[in-house]
Design goal:
Layout: H1 2-30, E1 37-39, E2 47-51, E3 56-59, E4 62-64, E5 77-82, E6 93-97, E7 102-106, E8 110-118, E9 124-132
Parallel strand pairs: 2-9
Antiparallel strand pairs: 1-4, 3-7, 5-8, 6-7, 8-9
């Protein structure tokens, strides 16, 4: 009887170690998480200006997730440059990667849609890259504070000249 007890006591630490390893592996796999969003310095869904003379720009984004849990597979961020209308690859700008960083490479003037998404494609965001040449451009993205403004979808930019008498209201660009 003593030999059986000694053998049991010798194998007990190994059994506990195997049990702990299997349990921790199962628990960690069950609490792995996906990203919930993408944090970047671009205006999401809006035009962001870039100069053609820059030739390239570094694309920066980081995933938003609860850092108490490990990320599951397929949450690495991937970039793409698309035509805004057809959603096919853009000729305006392309994405190049050196393994660690991704760059937006400008080829000509125009607008392209730059998307960032995880590899699972369950979280994504985009912005419109407006590439301008030497002539420059003015990009106005008005922030409308009230929901009742601009219901028609037409934005008028200018100043109202109250010195000129007119029938009704008229917007005169000065």
């Amino acid at each position: 009887m003593r030999k059986k007890a000694i053998l049991f006591l010798l194998f007990l630490p190994f059994l506990i170690a195997i049990f702990a390893f299997v349990t921790s592996t199962v628990i960690i796999r069950s609490v792995e998480t996906d990203i919930t969003g993408i944090r970047w310095d671009y205006q999401s869904g809006e035009e962001n200006p870039f100069s053609l003379s820059q030739k390239t720009t570094l694309l920066k984004a980081e995933p938003i997730y609860d850092d108490q849990y490990p990320l599951s597979e397929g949450n690495e961020l991937a970039w793409s440059s698309l035509d805004p209308e057809t959603r096919e690859e853009s000729a305006i700008a392309t994405i190049e990667s050196d393994g660690e960083n991704s760059y937006l490479v400008f080829h000509e003037e125009g607008t392209c849609r730059v998307e960032c998404r995880n590899q699972k494609e369950n979280v994504s965001d985009y912005f419109l890259a407006r590439i301008v040449g030497d002539s420059g451009a003015i990009i106005v993205t008005p922030t409308i504070p009230f929901s009742s403004q601009s219901i028609s979808g037409v934005n008028h930019v200018g100043l109202y000249d109250s010195a000129k008498p007119t029938k009704g209201r008229r917007l005169t660009l000065l």
